[in-house]
Amino acid sequence: MRVDLRKDFEANPLTTNEALGILDMDEGRLTELLDAAYVLRRKYKGNTVGVQLLTNGRSGNCSQDCAYCAQSHESKSDIETYRLVPYEKLSRDGQAVKEKNLARHCIGLSGIRFSDAEIDEFAAHVRNLKKESGTHICCSIGFLSPSQAKALKDAGVNRINHNLNTSRNYYPHICTTHSYAERLANIRMLQGMGFEICSGGIVGLGETKADVADMFLDLREINPQSVPVNFLLPLKGTALEGADTSALTPEYCLKVLCLARLMLPKSDIRCAAGREVYLEGREKDMFKAVDSIFASGYLTAGGLGIDDTITIITDAGFEYRQE
Ligand code: SF4
Asked: How far, in Å, from the CA of 142 to the mean position of ligand 1?
């Protein structure tokens, strides 16, 4: 379907067919698409780009079987494993976030369920971090009970990441140990408790374009404050180690990011894992849709350091958003 890129995407939100039409769009219209995304990006985010730092708070030994993840017990990846990161490491990262005026300190913990004692131990770390660095803190921390979520909120976590990862239909192909519906329910519970939500997905898992469109339609319903869009890094030792990523051309990745902006004009659209691989050299275009990126890697995959990340923002003609 041919999408009218001059339409008012806020007054007339994209339909399912139009979302698919964006992903199928002829590459000759890419500049026009980027310009349409940029109108909304500039309206809500100016020309600024926020930078997040991600600390791996608990690594490996996860009971779940997410096919892309090096931390699954099914993965043969050679990664460091630990139950809870030493506070010194969290503190060092918190200081870096503060000193460089980064937007947010994100902490990812492997696993899907936590005991109350584990949550209390982690909440104590968060409390110390808030005292020391005072940065915004977001956690990625599986499924929480309401009382566990409250303990984290009281400690100073104001945003929680819980990705949809892919469409409802495709979810059983990437994970069999928990369901898409459980993910949605967790997000809704957290929203009901007043948390800001960070929720996005991974493109390149073997899904169809219709799956990508469906995922963004569901994300639009959730309306998260922040939407991380990852492009699959087929990590050695994971079930998707040999995945074919030839569809992840820079042009396709840019179309996905534009779709995210057109669907969720006011959210932070974050180009997360895969940025350095699939979009290197296309940052000027990428930032027409994207206003947020990570520095220093993605849990078990490396990435560009903080200073180099700030440099690519300014070299692309955008402003590094100091928080
Ligand atoms: S993505 Fe999360 S839940 Fe899935 S295997 Fe990795 S750490 Fe576990």
From this structure: 8
